[in-house]
Amino acid sequence: MVRYGELSTKGHNKKNFIDRLGTNVRKALHDFTDVKVHANQDRMHVILNGVDSEAVMKRLKQVFGIQTFSPVLKVDKNFGAVCEAAKTLIEKQVSQPVTFKVETKRSDHNFEMGTFEMNRQLGGYLLEQFPDLLTVDVHNPAIEIRVEIRGNGIYLMSEIIKGAGGLPVGTAGKGMMMLSGGIDSPVAAYLALKRGVSLEMVHFYSPPYTSEQALAKAKELTGKLARYAGSIRFIQVPFTEIQETVKEKVPEGYLMTVQRRFMLRLAVELANRRKGLAIFNGESLGQVASQTMESMRAIEAVTNLPVLRPVLSYDKTEIIKIAEDIDTYNLSILPYEDCCTVFTPPSPKTKPNLEKATKYEGWLDVDGLMERALKGVKIEEIHADQEFLNQNEDVFAELL
Ligand SMILES: Nc1ncnc2c1ncn2[C@@H]1O[C@H](COP(=O)(O)OP(=O)(O)OP(=O)(O)O)[C@@H](O)[C@H]1O
């Protein structure tokens, strides 16, 4: 049984949210063909039909929009079956002494036992079974065994497991995520997905300066993030000609600003073509030269589409902690050079001037460069945990 959390406050949009969450849960569980998902008004029921509950719960933990969920056992309508099931729940959940109570609800009034009697008798049975583990506390128990006696059976549950929180992916519209191979942008992508944004990844690569493995790394990172979204489109944009031209014609202090302005323009153009509402990136204020407010202003001036930065106010250590939790960190630190690292000047301007950036760009064929980059775009759909890196290749060979 799945509880919706923040959804329940969404008034008349609630139905859309619940439908979307139902779709996302079905997507996350698509390979468990026997599982059935019923997304009702107040709760969602995921009927296992014999499928391993641990495997299903592992997937549910990655679906945004779920606040908590509980494994539920359904048994025949007799007291013996209820005792067996309650015993199983306690065995699974309890390893150290705890307080508990039994709380029964009865919608089937023909059942032979009343709620009070069920509470007492089941409580007594469990105390007998687990004398060293359980003590009754009816006011503030650590564990509540809930029993619901309904027409079609008796349902039992006790454990409450924390879900991923957030909002169902797809309820907040589509955004274009500028995904590098670094630590920050995958974390920013995770946070955007968590607030319900459906993302398409935009990745710039510069062969031969960057390797196939660098591209594969960005794709594999997308596979990690696709766990939270079912699948994610990956858009690779060739960036070599732009970087070479900028390097040749623009003064060194402005190389980075001008390159970033091109990246943003390209992401915006892709957003316009693909109905994206905003651009997301992994910038965190003050982290490096391009991430000062002056720099953000000079770069962002190329568009009036919102540029959203989910990790803007996070410290590096906080970002790393999330990267570890979502299992992107170890991939992000693999030493494959990204297109920006290769062309980063030793001392980029930390306070670039917008007028100068515009002036230097006047020396370039901006439209032609953009058009050719966009012509070379390749798009593919990446699924959860899809692998791309060539495991046999020695990662350090890249550094030689
Ligand atoms: N090759 C790329 N393709 C797509 N987006 C990029 C690329 N390089 C940088 N970006 C975007 O620009 C942001 C800032 O990049 P930069 O390299 O300055 O910072 P960073 O803090 O190292 O970020 P990250 O850890 O995400 O690489 C990235 O978070 C990402 O959103």
N- and C-termini, Cα separation: 54 Å
The ordered string of helix (H) and strand (E) elements is: EHEEHEEHEHEEEEEHEHEHHEHEHHHHHE
Strand order within the widest beta sheet: 15-14-11-12-13-16
Regions with pLDDT < 50 over 5+ consecutive residues? Answer: none
- The number of distinct β-strands equals 16
What is the number of helices? 14
Helix proportion? 25-40%
Give the overall average pLDDT. 92
Global shape:
elongated
Reported for the largest beta sheet, the result is: 6 strands, mixed
Give the amount of beta strand, in percent: 15-25%
Structural class: alpha/beta
What Rg is obtained from the alpha carbons, in whole angstroms?
A: 27 Å
Brief description of this entry?
It is an enzyme of class 2 (transferase). This protein is 38% helix and 20% strand. It is built from 14 helices and 16 strands.
Structure commentary:
The chain is α/β, with parallel strands linked by helices. Helix content is 38%, strand content 20%. The chain has 14 helices and 16 strands. The chain has a six-stranded mixed beta sheet with strand order 15-14-11-12-13-16, with helices on both faces. Strand 12 (198-205), helix 6 and strand 13 form a beta-alpha-beta unit. Helix 3 packs across helix 4 (115-129). The longest helix has 20 residues, at 255-274. The chain binds adenosine-5'-triphosphate. Adenosine-5'-triphosphate is lined by residues 178-180, 182-185, 202-204, 281-283, 287-288, 290, 338-340. Adenosine-5'-triphosphate binds at residues 178-180, 182-185, 202-204, 281-283, 287-288, 290, 338-340.
